[in-house]
Each structure stands twice: as structure tokens, then as C-alpha cells.
Write a structure and sequence with these properties.
This protein has 125 residues and is of the alpha/beta class. Helix content is 34%, strand content 18%. It contains 5 helices and 6 strands; from the N terminus they run βαβαβαβαβαβ. The longest helix is centred in the C-terminal third of the chain and has 13 residues.
Length: 125
Amino acid sequence: MKPTIAFLGTGLMGEPMCHNLLEAGLPLTVWNRSKDKTKRLAKRGAGVADSPHDAVTGADVVITMLSDGPAVTELMFDRGVADKISNGATLIDMGSIGADEAIDHAKRHAVQGVSYLDAPVSGGT
């Protein structure tokens, strides 16, 4: 059975990654604060969530491609998105965040039974 994937942040870096996931035939739900940036993905078969909370609910894997550590902290913890990630899921943070933030996020997710992988991306589109 293929894992269900939620992808938060479908901007310049995130959208091409999502196209690759769809190309691989993986079930994908996306969310972006600017819904316009999800249109091409929807045309290719991605589900588009109305909120990040809806996107992550029930996902086996959650991938974030957000601008920086404060953006991840605000979305995941201040807005309560982390509370909706299923116990046993894996979160892959692909944004550029500091080591201390990554360690803090890993600890906070572990309390909820969520595995955390800090996987920053560098380069261009």
C-alpha cells in the first residue's frame, strides 16, 4: 500500500517536488497559504486541502517546504497543525531552519509519536 502524503508549501521549491510525487503515483494532498499555487497540482490529480489541519489529518507522511524556522513553528505549533498529525506518521521538514529549532521540533513531534526528519534543501528552481 502506498503511503498518503500531505505537502505544505507549494511555492517555487515545493511545487516541482509535488509534481515528482504525483509522477511516482503517490497519493498527495497539498496546502499552500496562497491557494493559487495549488491549481496546477490539482489538475494533475493532487487533492487540495482548505487548511493545513485538513491536509495533515490521516497522512502517513507530512512534508513541509516553508521559508524558515519561525514559519514552521508558527504553522505547526502556534496554529496547532502538529496536533492533527497522526501518531506513527513521519514529518519531513525541507525548509532551512536552524539546528536548535530542528532539535526542538523533533522533540515536540516525538511526544506525539511522530518521527521527524530535518531535510533542508538548497539550490534553485
